[in-house]
């Protein structure tokens, strides 16, 4: 048990029957070294351990049970290290004068010996105990009965569950040893669970901070790249107007395609940053009379860009759709580009747009190798391209952006893939306003 008492608030130590040695010890050790309260000398880690025990609701009840069942007047949970003994929780019915946070000189405690040996110490009556009748600790604190068992968690020694009393008690031949062992194990389990929880919380916080920093970097990077890419685009367009032949014309054309790819990557990065840092993907929905024409324009542009590929489109929208036509067109463009990149070159890409039971459906299908089932669960996550199709160019943001566009419209983007075809389908319920507008005409 303790020695060299340094409680936060010195309590009365004297009571009838207590000897002067114990009274003097309590008075002298009320303050720590240099006259500072022990709390001010406590390291952060020790303070955290005191707090960890203090928030375990069961501990006060456990200490009460210990005092009631053994008849002992003082019980405590102590944090014991190589150089510290600190009370984490206390039940004091004998005015011992030690409170939570109070500290003892560890080298003069029996708990220090328990820390080294790892074994419990039980004393029914100090004068009759051959091992401890001449030990200085009982004389310093005036106790005759003592019990202390080690507390471990995650395989590490934490401290002790201990009790003392100025009168002899029957402990060894009672249920006290088993009770103490059970309670010490319970406290250790609580401490281990708390440590695991705090570790997982810290890991989550670190992951969030890292993600936010990454996305801030992406936003700045995307914004700063826009101007030089715009300059390159203007230069390539200017060169394209010059009279050129042969290899020079091919090089300028390749440069133009590279600049457009760069511009697309930057737009995707900015969309990612806005979606993550801005609290979600934002669209500007309005009743679109010409959504069919906007989607058909996307198809025509991609037919021109890929003259050797067949693109079959059947888009029929007989009613207005409340949507952001620019974003829906972006979704379709990304989907067709994916189909052209990953689908069979000798089979057409098939696009279908229609209204089915008050739901706007837009699908893009292609033949080719199916997407592995294990990859589909990550298909709409950012930066997941490598998990789906290794060795492919790009950042893997296109499908994530498409899924975010669908979500921002109150719809969803799904995929079905087998040996016959891979089909991505946007399904977006029509808002009542659009239906009402049609009925009023």
Helices and strands in order:
Blueprint: H1 20-28, H2 38-41, H3 44-54, H4 58-70, E1 74-80, E2 85-92, E3 103-104, H5 110-117, E4 121-123, H6 136-141, E5 145-153, E6 156-165, H7 176-240, H8 246-277, E7 286-288, H9 291-305, E8 311-315, E9 321-323, H10 325-342, E10 349-355, E11 359-366, H11 373-376, H12 385-388, H13 398-408, E12 412-417, E13 422-429, H14 432-440
Helix pairs in contact: 4-7, 7-8, 9-10, 10-13
Question: What is the terminal separation in angstroms?
Answer: 90 Å
- In quaternary terms, these chains amount to single chain
Shape: elongated
Q: How many whole angstroms does the radius of gyration measure?
A: 38 Å
Order of helices and strands: HHHHEEEHEHEEHHEHEEHEEHHHEEH
The CATH class designation of the largest domain is Alpha Beta
Strand line-up in the sheet with most strands: 3-2-1-6-5-4
Total number of β-strand segments? 13
- In terms of structural class, how would the helical and strand content be classed? alpha+beta
Low-confidence stretches: 1-41, 433-441
Q: Assign the CATH topology of the largest domain.
A: Beta-Lactamase
């Amino acid at each position: 048990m303790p020695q060299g008492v340094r409680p936060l608030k010195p309590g009365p130590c004297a009571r009838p029957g207590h000897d002067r040695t114990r009274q003097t010890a309590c008075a002298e050790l009320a303050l720590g070294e240099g006259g500072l309260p022990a709390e001010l000398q406590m390291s952060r880690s020790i303070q955290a351990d005191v707090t960890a025990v203090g928030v375990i609701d069961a501990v006060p009840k456990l200490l009460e049970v210990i005092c009631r069942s053994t008849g002992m007047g003082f019980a405590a949970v102590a944090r014991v290290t190589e150089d510290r003994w600190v009370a984490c929780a206390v039940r004091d019915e004998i005015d011992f004068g030690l409170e939570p946070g109070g500290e003892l000189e560890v080298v003069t405690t029996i708990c220090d010996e328990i820390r080294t040996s790892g074994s419990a110490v039980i004393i029914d009556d100090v004068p009759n105990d051959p091992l401890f009748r001449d030990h200085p600790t009982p004389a310093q604190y005036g106790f005759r009965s003592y019990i202390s068992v080690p507390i471990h968690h995650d395989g590490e020694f934490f401290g002790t569950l201990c009790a003392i009393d100025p009168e002899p008690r029957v402990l060894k031949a009672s249920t006290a040893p088993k009770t103490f062992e059970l309670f010490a194990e319970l406290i250790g389990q609580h401490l281990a669970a708390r440590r695991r929880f705090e570790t997982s919380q810290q890991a989550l916080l670190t992951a969030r901070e890292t993600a936010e920093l990454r996305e801030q970097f992406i936003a700045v990077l995307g914004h700063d790249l826009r101007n030089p890419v715009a300059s390159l685009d203007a230069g390539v367009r200017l060169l394209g107007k010059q009279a050129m032949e042969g290899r020079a014309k091919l090089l300028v054309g390749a440069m133009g395609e590279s600049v457009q790819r760069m511009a697309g990557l930057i737009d995707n990065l900015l969309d990612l940053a806005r979606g993550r840092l801005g609290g979600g993907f934002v669209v500007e929905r309005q009743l679109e009379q010409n959504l069919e024409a906007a989607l058909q324009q996307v198809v025509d542009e991609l037919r021109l860009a890929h003259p050797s590929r067949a693109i079959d489109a059947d888009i029929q929208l007989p009613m207005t759709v409340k949507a952001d036509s620019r974003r829906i067109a972006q979704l379709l463009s990304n989907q067709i580009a994916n189909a052209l990149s990953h689908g069979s070159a000798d089979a057409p890409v098939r696009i279908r747009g229609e209204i089915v039971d008050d739901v706007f459906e837009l699908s893009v299908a292609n033949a080719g190798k199916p997407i592995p089932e294990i990859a589909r669960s990550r298909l709409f996550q950012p930066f997941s391209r490598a998990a789906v199709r290794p060795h492919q160019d790009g950042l893997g943001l296109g499908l994530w952006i498409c899924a975010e566009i669908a979500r921002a419209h109150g719809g969803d983007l799904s995929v079905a893939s087998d040996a016959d075809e891979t089909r991505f389908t946007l399904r977006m319920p029509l808002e009542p306003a659009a239906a009402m507008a049609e009925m009023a005409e």
